[in-house]
């Protein structure tokens, strides 16, 4: 029996955790634990987690929903999908559940999570991962997914093939479109280029995807951000496609026009935003590698002022 914890039941953790819960409820192979508190915990414990897509509604139940480490117990896998500003606090609260055997898969918006997690748990296997999906919390215990595009990528340069293949098999049996890739750092950075520029421009201009694409000046800002972050990635020695800027613009053009970034949604709701990991991080990496990022710096100063 493999015990899997899902930390963070927002658009990413709630949706993919929901697919795992649906597949493995009352299974002899996998026990799924939703790590939640407050109203979310109460709703899921009483009536399950609801997932709404464009053409369906599904209610799923984990084996356990809790935020009590004593109740959660030892974990074989921990999938993390909180906000990046909650990484340290949320993981330290689960120290008693994270054993040497526990493999941690971060599915955050930023790219700095594995390094930050490794500092807390230096002996643990920390994978790299990212997802492409448009989904969000509709209400406590309810996740709304827009569109049909959903992909999960993960991998590691150090983890054993046995461990990686085991997790891939768990995902695939749950009908998650997951890809175990060798060049995971490049894959994660391709996603980061997409989400960093999008989160920065939507929050800075207070516009959604359709508005950015239909406003020539807004689109120009978005493209300039892509060019700056591409220079940073290349300075780091990452082998990205030569046409990464055009590829990323095409991804945006294929996205639902009414959608926006999760950081922009948080901004609109008056919540704390992930500008440190998604915007300021690019400025800091630029300084580290001698790359100027004036537009990122300008937007970072506005968003974090």
Automatic annotation (TrEMBL):
Function: Catalyzes the NADPH-dependent reduction of ketopantoate into pantoic acid.
GO biological process: pantothenate biosynthetic process
Gene3D superfamilies cross-referenced by the UniProt entry: N-(1-d-carboxylethyl)-l-norvaline Dehydrogenase, domain 2, NAD(P)-binding Rossmann-like Domain
Keyword Oxidoreductase included in the entry's annotation: yes
Protein name: 2-dehydropantoate 2-reductase
Annotated ranges, domain Ketopantoate reductase C-terminal: 183-303
EC number(s) given by UniProt: 1.1.1.169
Signal peptide annotation: none
Pathway assigned to this chain's UniProt record: Cofactor biosynthesis; (R)-pantothenate biosynthesis; (R)-pantoate from 3-methyl-2-oxobutanoate: step 2/2
All copies of domain Ketopantoate reductase N-terminal, residue ranges: 4-155
Alphabetical list of Pfam families matching this protein: ApbA, ApbA_C
Entry keywords, A to Z: NADP, Oxidoreductase, Pantothenate biosynthesis
GO molecular function: 2-dehydropantoate 2-reductase activity
Catalytic activity: (R)-pantoate + NADP(+) = 2-dehydropantoate + NADPH + H(+)
Domain of life: Bacteria
Family per record: Belongs to the ketopantoate reductase family.
GO cellular component term, pick one: cytoplasm
SUPFAM superfamilies on file: 6-phosphogluconate dehydrogenase C-terminal domain-like, NAD(P)-binding Rossmann-fold domains
